[in-house]
Automatic annotation (TrEMBL):
Its EC number is 2.1.1.148. It holds the Pfam family Thy1. The lineage of its organism: Bacteria, Bacillati, Actinomycetota, Actinomycetes, Candidatus Nanopelagicales. Homotetramer. This is Flavin-dependent thymidylate synthase.
């Protein structure tokens, strides 16, 4: 297989495929402790009170009302992003399987604005731009390795080797896809750790590629639950 037959990407795909998540869901769940059952119409009668309640819940870390929501995302990203993602045991995952389908030759290469050089120690470091030569060396090394790996994968498949065996030669820069479902409390926990933001109470140092996924998820979350997202930011991006 030649390099021209392989797809190289520098982006990620995040699509909200379904959701049952609104600020009203949080308020409805929280008020049952003091007001019993309420209709959604009753909940929407006093917007200022609703915003105040959500701010209170986020600030005081009363988190369970935020769990009465659900969002399902379709994500396409390099495998190394998924391996970091699945460290968060606060979601349900279903990923495509290299045991059952032939994996497509789609591989990750960094964009020109991806910072390449780590400065400082683990837990307290920053990344800075590399030189043009360093960038070109990185991209060439990745592409060369991808071509060889996928050629060997195809060679094994062509002689009848099982997919689950042949896939072992493929690198973590290969793109995979998955559905992930989580509630808003779990999503805020994920965002607190996988985005770097000024004003965060606990600074985070995410790898850029998983932060790209997190940023797209956060944009959908902010549209679905604007009051909750605002309270999350106001509380220093700490999950309640």
């Amino acid at each position: 297989m030649s390099e021209s037959e392989i797809v190289f990407r520098s982006d990620v795909t995040v699509e909200l495929v379904k959701a049952s998540a609104s600020d009203a869901d949080v308020i409805w769940a929280a008020r049952v402790s003091t007001a019993g059952e309420q209709s959604m119409e009753e909940i929407g009668e006093d917007p200022a009170r609703s915003e105040g309640l959500i701010n209170y819940l986020a600030r005081e870390r009363h988190g369970s009302p935020f769990e009465h929501t659900s969002m399902t995302f379709f994500i396409s990203a390099p495998i190394f992003v998924f391996r970091e993602f699945m460290r968060h045991r606060i979601a349900s995952y279903n990923e495509e399987s290299g045991r059952y389908r032939e994996l497509k030759p789609v591989f990750y290469v960094p964009s020109t604005d991806r910072k390449l050089i780590q400065v400082g120690k683990t837990g307290s470091y920053t990344f800075v731009d590399g030189t043009t030569e360093q960038y070109e060396t990185s991209v060439k090394a990745m592409k060369d390795a991808y071509v060889v790996a996928y050629e060997q994968y195809q060679k094994m498949l062509d002689v009848g080797i099982a997919r689950e065996v042949a896939r072992v030669v493929l690198p973590v820069g290969l793109y995979s896809s998955m559905y992930v479902s989580m509630n808003s409390r779990a999503l805020m926990n994920f965002l607190s750790l996988r985005t770097a933001r000024e004003g965060s109470h606990f600074p985070s140092y995410p790898q850029r590629e998983i932060e790209m996924v997190a940023e797209k998820m956060e944009a959908e979350f902010a549209k679905l639950m604007p009051l909750t997202h605002k309270a999350f930011e106001k509380s220093g991006r700490i999950a309640p």
